[in-house]
Design a protein that fits this description.
Strand order of the largest sheet: 1-9-8-7-4-2-3
CATH topology of the largest domain: Aspartate Aminotransferase, domain 2
Oligomer: single chain
Largest sheet: 7 strands, mixed
Number of strands: 12
Distance between the termini: 14 Å
CATH superfamily of the largest domain: Type I PLP-dependent aspartate aminotransferase-like (Major domain)
CATH architecture of the largest domain: 3-Layer(aba) Sandwich
Strand content: 5-15%
Number of helices: 10
Radius of gyration: 21 Å
CATH class of the largest domain: Alpha Beta
Shape: globular
Order of helices and strands: HHEHEHEEEEEEEHHHHEEHEH
Low-confidence stretches: none
Number of domains: 2
């Protein structure tokens, strides 16, 4: 196979209005960028300890609570570093002794690795499944944190979120929702820590973590923070909780990131909340998977329809069609970030179906792919 880019021009009437389909950073709605520009003079470049920014953080926390329909007593925390830093923070400040992890792709394995390398914690249980499939959490004696991943961004597998049965009293459920929050329906009462970064369904940039935490999780965080366990201040969930309650972060955040996340969530909440946003993603997923199933060269990578993600679609292509060439031709025509996840190593396209992406553009994308493949085959 060749990686040379053929000179293929996609007709203008096939092109999507917006050609951004990346799985993170995601498409940011133009209306949000315009809104940020309008307030930039009084918002950007101001102190995050003063009222202007603290009010925006308050709006963020309120918007998350409304979007996720949080039960009474749950609180919203935030801090810098994104999900990667939050895995370290959870290792230091949420896992008491031992955790169980579901590992079914690149990102779901990372928290398990953090915990396994922590010298002050017991060896975790790691339940694995091959890419495209998913394991199931199982109640186990001695486990105090069950670590789930709502949506595996690398493979396009989404799992239902439910507390495992047969767990020890006081066991917590922590869910990585980085590519799911705002795009997939779930019952927040089934979780104790539902955490995410805003550069996917929340149509913002990275570098910030946000977590919805239950009263039980708050008690655990405060207890560990008050213990003699050494925790770096920037990863101390007790410090993060205290600052979040003051509508601020421990260290300086990216103000534009906070604003864009607020704008996206308030847009979603205005039009009906999680039902509205997850519905947009579900419509796009229906278009993408129906197209792939009807195609003579494309197939959904995730064979079980119940596990197919509504926010990240992974589509395998026939060996006669080189996916990297298709992606390069699309990019040359202004349709970007359709490449497969690099470490998966498949002949595959990966398409974001986040709420900010219009379903009409997804439909146009499928027509563009068909056009490119037809041109490649006729060459």
């Amino acid at each position: 196979m060749t990686s040379e880019i053929p000179a293929i021009t996609i007709p203008a009437d096939l092109l999507p209005a917006d050609g951004r389909f990346g799985c993170g950073p995601s498409k940011v709605r133009p209306e949000a960028v315009e809104a940020l520009a309008e307030v930039s003079g009084e918002y950007l470049g101001t102190s995050h300890r003063q009222g202007t920014v603290k009010f925006m953080v308050s709006r963020l926390r309120n918007a998350v609570a409304e979007l996720l329909n949080l039960p009474d007593g749950y609180e919203v925390m935030l801090g810098n570093g994104g999900t990667t830093a939050f895995w370290d923070a959870l290792t230091f400040g949420l896992v008491d002794q031992r955790s169980q992890h579901l590992s079914f792709g690149e990102f779901s394995s990372k928290f398990a690795t953090c915990v396994a390398e922590a010298p002050f914690l017991a060896e975790p249980t790691v339940l694995t499944a091959p890419p495209g499939e998913a394991p199931q959490a199982t109640g186990e004696t001695g486990i105090d944190v069950y670590a789930l991943t709502h949506n595996e961004t690398s493979t396009g597998v989404a799992i239902p979120i439910a507390r495992p049965t047969g767990t020890d009293a006081g066991a917590l459920v922590a869910v990585d929702a980085t590519s799911a929050a705002g795009g997939l329906m779930f019952d927040s009462g089934q979780t104790d820590v539902y955490y995410f970064a805003p550069q996917k369904c929340l149509a913002s940039d990275g570098g910030l973590w946000i977590a919805a935490v239950s009263p039980a999780a708050i008690e655990r965080i405060e207890r560990i923070a008050a213990s003699d366990r050494w925790i770096p201040a920037s990863l101390d969930l007790g410090i993060a909780l205290d600052n979040s309650r003051k509508d601020q972060t421990y260290n300086t955040p990216a103000l534009a990131t906070i604003f864009l996340a607020v704008h996206q969530m308030e847009w979603i909440n205005t039009y009906g909340g999680l039902g509205f946003s997850s519905g947009r993603s579900a419509t796009s997923a229906g278009i993408m998977y129906s197209w792939a199933e009807a195609s003579d060269y494309a197939t959904p990578f995730v064979s079980d329809p119940e596990l197919r993600s509504n926010v990240v679609a992974t589509i395998d292509l026939d060996d006669s069609v080189e996916a990297t060439v298709v992606s390069k031709v699309l990019r040359a025509n202004g349709i970007v970030d359709t490449e497969s996840y690099r470490k998966l190593g498949r002949n595959q396209l990966r398409i974001a179906l986040f709420p900010a992406i219009d379903s009409d553009d997804v439909a146009q994308l499928t027509r563009c792919i068909d056009h490119v493949v037809a041109e490649l085959r006729s060459a």
